[in-house]
Amino acid sequence: MIKLDSITLFLSWKCNFSCAHCGFQCNPERKEKMHLHEAKSYINSVTENQDLKMLAFSGGEPFLYYNEMKELMSYALQRNLVGGIVSNCFWAVDYYTAYETLQELKSLGLREIITSFDDFHAAYVPAQNIAHVIKAASQLGIKTGLNILATKKSRIRQSNASSILGLDLENLVCAQKLWIRESSPLIVGRARESLNIETFSSKDLITYGEKELLYNPCPYVIRNSIITPKGDFYACCGFGDATSLGPSSITYGGNMKKSNFPELFTGVSHNLILNIICLYGPYLLVKLARDLHQDLVIKERYISNCEVCGEIATNKKLHNAVGEVLNKMALQNKEGIN
Ligand code: SF4
Ligand code: SF4
Question: What pLDDT, on a 0 to 100 scale, did the predictor assign at position 338?
Answer without folding.
Answer: 63
